[in-house]
Design brief:
By secondary structure, the protein is of the alpha/beta class. It is built from 15 helices and 9 strands. The structure holds S-adenosylmethionine.
Length: 296
Amino acid sequence: MDFYEWYDRSLLEAHQHNVPRHELECLILSLLGLTKLDLRLRSLNIKAQINSELLTKLDQAWQKRWRDRLPVQYLIGSVIWRDLELQVSPAVLIPRPETELIIDLVADFVKQSNQSLTYQNGSWLDLGTGSGAIAIALAKTFPQSQIYAVDLSESALEIAKANTCKNIQVNHQQINFCLGNWFEPILQLNLQNQIAGIVSNPPYIPSLEVLNLQPEVTKHEPHLALSGGDDGLDAIRELVNTAPDYLISHGFWIIELMSGQANIVRSLLLENGCYSNIKVHQDYAGIERFVSAERI
Ligand SMILES: C[S@@+](CC[C@H](N)C(=O)[O-])C[C@H]1O[C@@H](n2cnc3c(N)ncnc32)[C@H](O)[C@@H]1O
C-alpha cells in the first residue's frame, strides 16, 4: 500500500468513526514533518519521502487514535493554546480553548482597576496548574509578577516546568512550582494576605459523570483533573472558603466551572461573606463558564 492508498483508507475510517478529518491531517503533518499544502495537493514528493517503516509508524498512531480513542494531542505530544505551544501527555489535562478566555478576563480586570500596578507586580496563584497553561500565560501577561503554580500531581508539575522553559525565555524563576493539596504549599510559604489574584480551572465534573464522558476523556485524561467529587463542587468549595486567608484586600478571584454551576458558586461566595463584586462570565459559546469576585 502506498501513502495515498493508506490516506484514502484512513479518511474513510475517520468518517466512519467520527474522528474529525483535521485530526488525521494533524497526525500526518506532525509525524511526517509535512505542510498542509503538500497533503492537499497530493504532492508526489510525499510518496517518495515515505518508506514502509514510516507508514507503519503512522498507521500505528492512527489506529491508537480511532480504535483506542487516544486524543490526537497526546499522540503528537503538544497542543497550541493561546500563543503557547505546550507539551502534553496523559499526565495532564489537554488545555481547552474555552479556558483561554480566563486570561483575558484577568487582564481586563487588572486594566480597569485603579490599582493596576498592585496586580501587575503582585503574586498570583494558579491552583491546579496541570500543563502550566494558565501560569505561563499569566507570567507573560504580567512580566513583573510572581506566579505560584500548584498541583497535586508530581508528573503534571514536571510537564508544567518543561513548558515554562520552552515558553518563557527571560525569567524562568518567575513561576514557582509547588507540589501539594490546593493551599497547603502556599501556607508553608507563609503567603497569607499577600496574594493579588487567584486563578483556577479546578476539577469540577461530578465523579459519576466523569465515567460517561466521551471515551477520549474518560479513558485517557487524568481523573484527578476532572473529578470534583459527588456534586462536582469539592475543589470549588475549598477555593471559595480558603482563598480569603491568602488574598490581599481587593484581591481578585476567578475560576472556571461547568454549565449549571454558576449560580451555586455565586451563592457560595455570597454566603462566605468575604467577597464583593461577584460576576458570572460566559464563554464564546454563551455558557456561564467563569465566576469572578474580589476579596473585601
Ligand atoms: C481541570 S485541570 C486544569 C489544568 C490546567 N490548569 C488547565 O486549565 O488546563 C485541574 C488540575 O487540578 C489538579 N488537582 C486536582 N486535585 C488537586 C488538589 N487537591 N490540589 C492541587 N491540584 C489538584 C489536577 O492534577 C489538574 O492538573
